Amino acid sequence: MERYRIAVPLGDVAGIGPEIVVKAxxxxxxxECAEVIVVGDKKIVEQAIGITKVPLSVKTINDPDEGDxxxxxxxxxxxxxxxxxxxxxxxxxxMCGQAAYEFIAKSIELAMDGKVEAVATxxxxxxxxxxxKVPYIGHTEIxxxxxxxxxxxxxxxxxxxxxxxxTRHVSMRKMLDLIKKDRIIDYxxxxxxxxxxxxxxxxxxxxxxxxxxxxxxxxxxxxxMTDIAPAVKELQEMxxxxxxxxxxxxxxxxxxxxxxxxxxxLYHDQGHIATKTLDFDRTxxxxxxxxxxxxxxxxxxxxxxxxxxIAGSVSMVxxxxxxxxxxxxxxxx
Length: 333
Description:
Layout: E1 4-9, H1 17-25, H2 28-33, E2 34-40, H3 42-52, E3 57-60, E4 73-78, H4 94-112, E5 118-121, H5 126-131, H6 139-146, E6 153-158, E7 161-165, H7 172-178, H8 181-197, E8 205-208, H9 223-237, E9 242-246, H10 251-256, E10 262-265, H11 268-279, E11 284-288, E12 293-297, H12 314-326
Helix pairs in contact: 1-3, 4-6, 8-9
């Protein structure tokens, strides 16, 4: 099996990121599919190895080509940006927020330079980023800015179910104002391109309904009649293989059973609940529409258990596995 080079930034090191990374690196799935380059701080990595007691030795490198990808070796690009005298587990810390940003930026640089096929990210803390005066609220915004991508798309994948999001981090009231025909048309077009880039060219995309029973012809809301159905009709006339609106109480199950290749969820929790109920640990986020591939665990920093060695690495393993799965479409230059 071919192995692909994946950069893994440590994330917010006051959380569980370092622990799940070192645990994932000794998982047979990761050993088989990936050559991982960790971007972080050596002191933190060695601390995580000590806490988790995984059989790894650290090799510091400056370039992925210098790495030793044998079993038991952790290849690290050491940014040396953590002062251990100011470090504490489970605390919002500007130093950790700044370091997390620098780990991500270096990983993006590696991917943009064709040194790795993908980046698989670990959790960051929005409050720590803010404390560090990092001008981005989260991963998606950082990746968008540093890859010069306007409005990157979010795709969740778990057990073959793929879910895109028309809206993300906005209130329910504001979300309703964004459910517009032109926006749906634009997103379906771009989501289709993301699927093609990932190698998914067959199958039908479904657009989820918004209101109960898709509004029952206006009895419970009019968005399906005024914007969603007209957008789908226009897309079909353009040649796009898309259907909808399909009731949100059934469309995700139908997609998981293989009827659709993906679902366009209309708002954050609609799609999050569906994927995470199906398999919380294996729900992985993929950022689409960029020149590089990024996958990510979809859980937080878990400050409450950081440093205890008990954090599970299933999501990290799955993020790296999915990065390797789609890596052939993002081959190193």
